[in-house]
């Protein structure tokens, strides 16, 4: 990008370059006749890319022009409609001023009007209140305005307002040399009791070392003796004392307090708007901004206001060796792109090779554009800087490291939230968070920042399970077993997310990268082992939890949610892995009293079937990849589950194989005919559906006869179940059960895989 | 072990093999991760350490050179590696840091460039303060007051001192690429506001992070044992332990002073492996002290918290404060502190 173009693009640059005329907004047209052509064309050239000149803009501009002319000429005494016109013009000026600010010329004219006393006090006040610059105020205007103060045409209250305005707008005045020459005049105004606080504030801003003179010190001390310890006088005195310690021997309170209050509040929103105009629009649409506002309570011991450092590219270390260079030179010279100007994604793309990095890498957490950059950058030192900063910050902020120090809990949670947002944005975990978990998990009480902490777990970067298990999962398991069912559910939820993140990472990365012939866990097979170990581990956790919580339905939902992910790995992520659920999950789910559990189980079985079928098909096609052939054990296991399910739901022949139930037990339970007691009609989870179905279809029947559901009725019943939303069941039956074409018979047999 | 034996540096991996590095754990980040994993899965401290040897300071060292670092109380900090720190720029850093301090001290006031602020900052290296050749040079930062009266020009008063060092920091050096300077141990003496300002400047300039380095009771016992084990020509101070009993409203402190020769005799009786200190010996040493105390006062010191250890070699407080008394063992003391600092930043 050429330097000229950059000047055009960025407002900050425009401000620093003095040669280009920065006073050109709409009001410039006022004095069009005075300006030469080149300036006019420059103005249009400047504004064209920014916005189209719509009619509305033209009209507003004209109205403002007329209003300013009106004020410049002064009131026309005779007209009866004077008040109306005046009001209209005032409104116009106010609207423009608060909306987009006034150009220096406009402020120059109107300031004159307000202080010359052409209009009444009320009008002057209103004009002064809306002296809001677009970006800058010319020094001359201020000097002229001050000269009006000497004439005595304006009232005391107007003077007060003027000083307050001057203090508020001080930073936007382009130069201060001339104003400083008026130091004596301002100083003399201290005599005026009403003005004194405001003049003090102005002097506080204006004072330089050479302004501090013995006679002024005497005067100030005299005033202080007269008026007592006023905070504004104290402020000025302490400033004087700072510049000339030898001149002032009185002791001033060392602790700083608020010297000046409320002098800005009239223009607070306006000031914000002006600053924003100067600094450019907020960098990103709100939803992309990751961080909270930069406001943090000032509590940090090392005077940084927030845990996360501010974005700042002007690092001293880079400045070194380029002594004597003005900042603007520096910005332009080496072609690097300052971070402060980075506002949009296209800008990032354009400048990606010359981007200046933040002096503190931690700042990227709050900036989504830089997170993009971090994501693709190959420079290890950038990541290492982030790693060190983040590890230390987490360690320092972690509240359960400090005894009885829970007051920063909210702040810690906020920090974790920011980190998690960044991880989610990158779809990748930070190593620092992983190491933080190693250290902090053994000390965690399972309560503090639980949701954040478990989310951190779900973003652990992919790594060898056997390595991570003793550091992480074993500690988590201890908490898991002794905590409430809700905690168990949250842990399972976050482990499901962890699995998902790992699968995503593997499915995008492994397939792109060449499979290395080096250590085991870098190969696809090694990775698959790790994933299956993780799944087995979560399966073990789930089985134990089911036993501990006596087959709680709520818990079972979370477990099945997890297996919904697991069963689809082959198809969804294109990874050669199918892991079945353990019997400790399958049987409780199959015999659950809850129809939605049964439905979910059916769905999962259907997905397993689709994945295994796809795997089988692939194996037949490419015989080479023998490494990833699924063992016949997996197929056998699946077929066993399938047989049991079909037996329990369809053929009424439950548990024919592999399960022996003592006849006595069955007699005791009073279900001697258990063989016919378990099918879609009699399944405890579906009983209520059967009854509703029968009542709905044959309301006249006096007795509900369940065993009547057969043949045609069986099919109607099925349709009824499907219409009740049992979609998983529908999929399962459609795919796994071959129904004979004749609807009358009930001969069905499971479709075996192998 | 000869400190010079360590090889200069390990060969660096080229950019082309980065992808592979990532997988086999050879990138700095992977290395750090491996290190932390190792550390988290085993007992954090090695069961044995060397007794500080007086010969460890490099020969070209004038014994009085570091005298000004002794007999002062230092507050300890751990520090992550400095990014793009260069020993050739120390002059420039002095200039920048003094400007930064001036600006910080007058926050809210306009600071004119080139103005005199009655303070001066100096950076200088502490040549030779290292364990191996690989350790980066230690360096010193001082804030000096410029005197107001011209006649006093010569006597500049030191307002604040801080120094950065790395003694036997191999475990950290191995995992950090050359853009970084590893000086994990930072010691400061002077007003904390100054420490904060200097620290902030370093953090902003070299993207590093300071944390206070507290010393837990476990490590204090190690210090007690190692320092008692040091051979001394003459003892300058009694060996003293301070235990704190947490009780309300005010905690109770128990001080336990022993004649240093008695302490040494006790140590010699539990000490077996020459030149080394083992975990068992440390435990035994402390247990002897405990049982002796219990015999007289019927108080189980092991149930309280050790907060301070003072010996003729050095004294250390659990808050992370240290005072070094004996010049001979300076390097040995710093080596242990460096180890603690590295443990904290891992």
From TrEMBL, chain A:
GO process annotations (BP): CENP-A containing chromatin assembly; mitotic sister chromatid segregation
Transmembrane segments: none
A Pfam family that the UniProt record links to this protein: CENP-I
Basic and acidic residues composition bias: residue spans: 1-22
Region named Disordered: 1-25
Locations listed in the record: Chromosome, Centromere; Nucleus
Keywords tagged on the record: Centromere, Chromosome, Nucleus
Primary site of residence: nucleus
InterPro entries assigned: CENP-I (IPR012485)
Gene Ontology, cellular component aspect: inner kinetochore; nucleus
Signal found in the keyword field: no
UniProt family annotation: Belongs to the CENP-I/CTF3 family.
Name of the protein this chain belongs to: Centromere protein I isoform X2
Organism: Acinonyx jubatus (Cheetah)
From TrEMBL, chain B:
Statement: the UniProt record of this protein carries the keyword Signal: no
Keyword list, A-Z: Centromere, Chromosome, Nucleus
Coiled-coil residue windows: none
Main localization category: nucleus
Keyword DNA-binding: no
Annotated Gene Ontology cellular component terms: chromosome, centromeric region; nucleus
Cell compartments where the protein resides: Chromosome, Centromere; Nucleus
Family to which this protein belongs: Belongs to the CENP-L/IML3 family.
The protein's name in its UniProt record: Centromere protein L
Organism: Acinonyx jubatus (Cheetah)
Record lineage: Eukaryota, Metazoa, Chordata, Craniata, Vertebrata
